[in-house]
Design goal:
Chain lengths: 274, 357
């Protein structure tokens, strides 16, 4: 009984926090999303996703978030494998290099990418030095993907690195003893065991990439609108909170879909069921 | 039990926050030696606020907004009470239409009557019929800033922004009305057009133009043009002045089809608590020596007739951008509020342009 009481007391600060800053705002957003300006129940704002080209923005957002996630995974996985292989050596410096970008304000690093990719930017000045034609990089989908990958790569590296380094070396030795070559060991042992890390990495990259508006605003030049930019405009410029909330709710549905999808691949769940 | 405790705590917290706010405001209401001013960020020489405080003993509480659109809901919903605001033309029109402003008492504004140019009051009639609500503070035009080293033909028309030679080298304004103004003027229509057929045509022109556009920009335009990131850009005259000072390769032109003559003016809110002080503040801002300070600080053209004579910097004094000749602003239009439905129509047209790939 006392145990339970202390537990409740200890939980209270977070419950208050969650209630005030997570639950109540969420209810507000959903409420605004399903009402019109007069306060009547209406799904018109939800249906707006099919108008004004909002659907284009949503599919573009999903596509760019998907590409960024895949690029992050391709970059992070081999790196984490190498890092864990060398775990007995000093890997602190290498892993520090990957966490370092997180210490810097993401706005600043995105601005730095602007300077790198611009028409008169660093890359193009370099090209000009060798009389090569200038490249149009800024304000393209590619620029947005670069910005997303740069900002979110650490979120892929960290969970992957942690799960990979937790794999018991004796399991790998056992695989070798039982005649598996290194490819088979990777494919049948390491890969399945690292899936939980990959799954959380994918979620942690995909969701912020899907909802971002800063990166697309800064590297897309206002020509490429993601769903995050449209929501931001509805709130700050058009001042249509109902539409903004309705679009946010739709975005949430996509995030939940993504989480369900990744959870389906999560082997941890199955273990828990046993 | 747990739930009850939580609810009680929540209610307690809410009550605290509510009384906290109320107490603070209550304390300020009674006093009359304050004035609450809400203006654009970095849109005033802060020294003038100090001299106002010294001259009148009225304490200025100064808040800033970054767009008309972000200012409007805060004032409309009365979340905070401001006495004096400095919105732009069409927004003043909207605030008048929605009954958010208080008619000015010009007997308390002798400087505003004497020094603000007649033509600016006349131009203000577009959005403030009868000049009842507003005193012009800054004004300017919108034009094309271009790189003299790259543009070979004369820049005298908006149609240069559709010239394929400059593909990827054009910067447009990232706002519905500012962007629509360009094709509307090119078609010889009013920038306050409400005929949907005409507006759809203007939208079609902007969609055709989009592949040539490098980016839709707001404040970034200054930095981009200073660094020669683009060849042509649609800019406000105040921004043009800064760009020209920093980058000698640039030149500024106002297209012959006409442009937007914008005016930002002082207004007093309906709910103002310190009406007397608000009048004093506005009138102080119209005093020639104060107007010069603000002009030197901002670089935006001033409607104050006395400023040009008091300006000591010869270069600025003779700049046709800082002090345009009357021909520049004759027969120019100013934005007015077209009503909520029309606003939404403009915005939806603009949104479609932006998501069109």
């Amino acid at each position: 009984m006392i145990n339970r009481l202390t537990r409740n007391v200890l939980m209270t600060p977070f419950l208050i926090w969650a209630g005030l800053f997570i639950f109540i705002p969420l209810v507000y957003i959903i409420w605004f999303g399903v009402t019109d300006k007069a306060g009547n129940f209406s799904l018109d704002n939800m249906a707006m996703i099919f108008e004004k080209g909002f659907w284009n923005a949503l599919t573009l957002s999903v596509w760019l978030a998907f590409v960024s996630t895949v690029v992050c995974l391709i970059l992070a996985y081999p790196l984490c494998l190498i890092l864990t292989e060398r775990q007995r050596d000093n890997t602190t410096i290498i892993s520090l290099l990957f966490i370092l970008p997180l210490w810097m304000n993401s706005l600043l690093s995105t601005m730095a990418w602007q300077t790198i990719l611009e028409g008169n930017g660093i890359i193009n000045q370099f090209m000009r030095l060798f009389d090569l034609p200038a490249l149009q990089m800024i304000n393209t989908e590619g620029a947005i993907v670069v910005g997303m990958v740069y900002n979110y790569l650490p979120y892929m590296v960290l969970p992957l690195f942690i799960t990979l380094s937790k794999i018991d070396r004796s399991i790998l030795e056992a695989a070798h003893d039982l005649g598996a070559n290194s490819w088979q060991t990777f494919y049948r042992v390491i890969l399945p065991l690292s899936l939980p890390g990959a799954v959380s990495g994918i979620t942690m990259v995909f969701i912020p990439a899907l909802t971002t508006f800063v990166i697309s605003a800064m590297l897309g030049g206002g020509k490429l609108l993601l769903i995050g930019n449209i929501i931001e405009q509805e709130f700050t410029f058009q001042y249509d909170w109902h539409l903004g909330c309705a679009l946010s709710v739709i975005l949430m549905i996509f995030i939940i879909l993504n989480m369900l999808l990744t959870a389906a691949f999560d082997p941890i769940k199955e273990e828990e069921k046993d | 039990m747990k739930l009850k405790f939580l609810v009680l705590l929540l209610v307690g917290l809410l009550a605290m926050s509510v009384t906290g706010c109320g107490g603070e405001q209550g304390g300020k209401d009674g006093e009359s030696n304050e004035v609450y001013v809400y203006s654009w960020g970095d849109y005033i020489d802060y020294e003038t606020l100090k001299s106002f405080e010294n001259a009148t003993g009225i304490h200025v509480v100064f808040d800033e907004f970054d767009t008309n659109e972000s200012m409007y809901p805060r004032v409309a919903e009365g979340a905070v009470h401001y006495d004096v605001i400095c919105p732009s033309d069409y927004m003043i029109h909207k605030m008048i239409s929605n009954g958010l402003l208080r008619p000015l008492d010009f007997s308390k504004l002798p400087n505003a009557k004497e020094y603000i140019g007649e033509e600016f009051y006349k131009q203000s009639e577009t959005f403030d019929p009868g000049n009842k609500y507003s005193v012009p503070y800054c004004w300017g035009t919108v034009g094309i800033i271009y790189d003299k080293t790259k543009v070979t033909e004369p820049v005298d028309s908006w149609n240069i922004l559709w010239n394929e030679k400059y593909a990827g080298q054009i910067l447009m304004q990232d706002s519905a009305r500012d962007s629509m103004m360009v094709p509307l003027k090119l078609m010889g229509k009013s920038m306050n057009e409400t005929d949907k057929e005409v507006l759809n045509q203007a939208q079609e022109m902007l969609i055709q133009q989009k592949p040539l556009v490098q980016a839709y920009v707001i404040d970034e335009v200054k930095e981009k043009m200073i660094n020669s990131e683009a060849t042509l850009a649609v800019v406000y005259s105040g921004e043009a002045l800064i760009i020209l000072q920093e980058n000698p390769n640039m030149a500024f032109a106002i297209p012959k089809e006409g442009t937007n003559l914008w005016i930002d003016s002082w207004v007093i809110t309906k709910d103002a608590k310190n009406v007397e002080n608000a009048h004093k503040f506005i009138d102080f801002m119209c005093r020639p020596d104060v107007a010069v300070m603000n002009f030197d600080y901002l670089g935006y053209s001033t409607p104050n007739k006395a400023v040009k004579d008091l300006e000591t910097n010869e270069e600025i004094k003779n700049s046709p951008i800082a002090f345009p000749s009357p021909e520049t602003y004759k027969n120019q239009e100013t934005f007015k509020y077209l009503g909520n439905d029309m606003d939404e129509y403009y915005n939806s047209l603009w949104m479609k342009i932006k998501v069109n790939n």
